[in-house]
Amino acid sequence: MENDATPRLGNLSAARFTSQLLAWNDRLSRNLPWRGDRDPYRIWISEVMLQQTRVETVKPYYSRWLQRFPSISHVARAAEDEILKAWEGLGYYRRARLFHQACKQIIRDHHGAVPDNPEAFRQLPGVGPYTYAAVRSICFHDPLPAVDGNLKRIMARILALSANGSALHRTVERTLATVIPVHRPGDFNQAMMDLGATVCTPRDPRCGECPISDSCQAHFSGQVDLYPRPTKRKPRPHVPVAVGIIWRDSQLLIRRRPPEGLLGGLWEFPGGKVEPGESPEQTVVREVQEELGLKVQIMDRIGTVRHAYSHFSITLHAFHCKYTDRGAIPQNGSDYRWISWDEISHFPFPKANHKLFPLIEGNAPPRDQQL
Fold first, then answer.
1. Same domain assignment for residues 187 and 256
2. pTM > 0.85: yes or no
3. Do 98 and 166 reside in the same domain of the chain?
4. 211 and 255 inside one domain
5. pLDDT band at 2 (very low <50, low <70, confident <90, very high)
C-alpha cells in the first residue's frame, strides 16, 4: 500500500513507474551489439562511443573495434595512430585518446582489469559522471542514474520542469537517484535511453506507445513539445581554410595536429585559416612558412570542399604545391612525415581532409612539376 512518503514520478508511485518501464523494456528493448553483455571493458567502450553519437553510427565501429582490440591489453599496447585510425570518422577524438590512456593505466595499476573499486574507476582518464554511472549500473549493479539527453527530456516532460541546462541535469539526477530500482539499475538506465531514443523523441513523440505516459504531466496538459525548455544556441560560425598538398618527388608532406584541442593527434595537410584580405593561396604560403619554416610555390588548385563540425563549419580550399628550398626540413617542433600516396590510408585524418582524397587522387600534378 502506498502512503504519503512513497517516492513518486509524476502521477505514479516510483514502484509502479519502474515496473511499467521495465516490463516494456523486457518486451521491446533494442537489439544492440553490447546489450546483455556485462563485461566492463565492452560496456565501457560502447558508452564512450555513444557519447554525442547516434547508435546506428556506433554499431559498426563497436564491432570493428572489438575485432581489432578484443581486450584492454590490446588497446594499451597499440600506438596512438592505431587507436585514432580505428576511431577515424567517429568524431570527438579526445574520447579515444583518453580511453587509450585509461587502458594503459589499468595495465599499470590494476592488473589489466577494469577496477571494481568505484573510486579507482572514477579516477581513470575520461571517466565522467555519465560514463561512471552507466558502467557501474550495468556491470556492477550500482543504483546510479546515467543522465544523458534522453533521460533529461523524459523527466522534463514527466515533471513539467521549466529548468534547463545544468539546473535540469541536477534535478533529474537527484530525482532518479531516489527511485532507480536497486535490483535492476542497469536495465532501468538502458530502458530510459531506449524510451528517449524511440518513443519520447525530441520531435513528434509517440505518447500513445509510451509505457509511462499516465505519469507524464506534459502529456496530460497537451504540452509535450514545450519540454524540455530550449536553451539559446549561438550561431555556428563558418571558417575558410586553405591547405597545401606539398610534393617532394613522388612523396607528399603531412603533419600531426597537437595532442590537445580539436582533432588532437590526427594527421592533416599543412595550412590554416584564411585571414581577412588574404587569398587562399596566400594563406597556404604563409601558414607553411610560419608553422613548418618551409617556402612553397603554388602549382595547381585541386578544389574546394565543405564540412560541418559540431560547433562550426569550414570551406576547405586545397592546392598542389612544391617547396622551393629542397635542402630545408620542417621546423618549429612539427611532427611530420613524407609519405607516398599509397601510404595515406595508414594515417588517421579528419573527415574534411578525407573529402579531398578523391580530388587529389584524380588531379595529381605531373611528375615533372614535382620538385
1. no
2. yes
3. yes
4. no
5. very low
Quick: pLDDT tens for 191-212.
Answer: 999 999 999 999 999 999 999 9
Do you know the residue count of the chain? 371
Domain of 175, in residue numbers: 10-226
Reply yes or no on whether the pLDDT at 97 is more than 50.
Answer: yes
Q: Tell me, what CATH number does 154's domain have?
A: 1.10.340.30
155, pLDDT greater than 60: yes
Candidates 47, 88, 173, 287; catalytic one: 47
Q: Give yes or no: 47 in active site.
A: yes
Q: Which residues of 57-94 are buried (b: 16+ CB within 10 A; e: fewer)?
A: ebeebbeebbeebeebbebbebebebbbbbbbebbbbb
- Tens digit of each residue's pLDDT (9 = 90 or more) over 306-324: 999 888 899 999 999 987 7
